[in-house]
Specification:
The chain is an all-alpha fold. It is built from 16 helices and no strands. It starts with 14 loop residues before the first helix and ends with a helix.
């Protein structure tokens, strides 16, 4: 995509004004609109001269992960050459990550072709709330990493094989070893939540058994997660559940997992945490193909 030449002339159009108009067309929700406009203003300050207001507006909406911004509208905002726009978005993300998270669970789910209704997003939020108790996520540099690592770990326990450490590290220009360490930190904090997460995902499947569910779970669940075992010492499990339910009221109907099953899960987690390769499966997927897949999917739905 060939961009218009940069110019600081007083006669040149004001990018902010054009960008604001585009954002107002893209964002239907008032709260989303305010956030997008604020982020657009920040982008204007970072890039003093901006002759691509449409791209700037697209970035402001897409970084927020808003669902009401269709790929068709985003394509019009970008103009031709969407992959080039994606590269610009990645560089902007690096700049903005010093101030606030630049990814969201909604945008990650959409980018990696995962059907993510509200209940699954709430589960990710509950895992994030537990994970940030760990000191590994206290630095400003970890603002994006917490979203990546929670998303990777939660997808891994649900056997979603197209979300991996190497893939996300490559797509977002991250250090693979560093991201693996963050994923291990999430696993160490949140492994006791695994049974409740799986039960919650299973409970939200349609009663008629149709394959239109939160996530397509590949294969069978381990026996220790499906066998009905009466808990012998529920006190500790109730405490763990209470912490989770503070951030995910939708999970209140779930029962705490028995200690014997949790011990098996912890042993499995300790083995897997020795190497990132044991956790995930490599998938050859490029960011461009993800974007094109999503764009085609939305066009078909229209």
């Amino acid at each position: 995509m060939k961009s218009a030449p940069l110019s600081s002339s007083n006669n040149s159009p004001r990018p902010a004004r054009t960008g604001e108009r585009l954002i107002k067309r893209l964002c239907a929700d008032e709260r989303t609109l305010r956030k997008a406009l604020a982020l657009h203003t920040r982008l204007e300050k970072v890039f003093k001269q901006d002759a691509l207001p449409n791209v700037c507006a697209y970035l402001a909406c897409e970084i927020l992960g808003t669902e009401d911004v269709s790929w068709e509208a985003a394509s019009l905002a970008c103009g031709p050459g969407e992959p080039a726009c994606f590269e610009l978005w990645r560089s902007v993300r690096v700049v903005l990550s010093r101030f606030e998270p630049t990814v969201s669970f909604i945008s990650l789910s959409r980018l990696y072709n995962i059907d993510a209704p509200e209940s699954f997003i709430n589960v990710l939020g509950a895992v994030k709330a537990r994970a940030i108790e760990d000191s590994a996520f206290t630095s400003p540099e970890s603002r994006d990493s917490i979203f990546f690592s929670v998303f990777i770990w939660t997808c891994s326990i649900l056997n979603v094989d197209n979300v991996t450490v190497p893939l996300i590290a490559d797509d977002y220009d991250l250090e693979e070893d560093e991201l693996s360490n963050y994923v291990r930190a999430v696993a160490s904090r949140c492994i006791t939540l695994s049974p409740m997460i799986i039960r919650h995902i299973e409970a939200t499947k349609p009663a008629n058994g149709r394959l239109v569910t939160i996530i397509q779970v590949h294969g069978e669940l381990p026996p220790q997660l499906t066998s009905p075992v009466k808990p012998k010492s529920p006190k500790r499990e109730r405490e763990n559940e209470d912490i989770l339910l503070q951030d995910a009221p939708q999970l209140k109907r779930l029962k705490p997992a028995p200690t014997s099953r949790l011990d098996g899960i912890r042993r499995t987690a300790n083995k897997l945490s020795n190497t990132a390769a044991g956790f995930f499966v490599n998938v050859n997927t490029s960011p461009t193909s993800c974007i094109v897949a999503n764009q085609n999917q939305n066009r078909d739905s229209v």
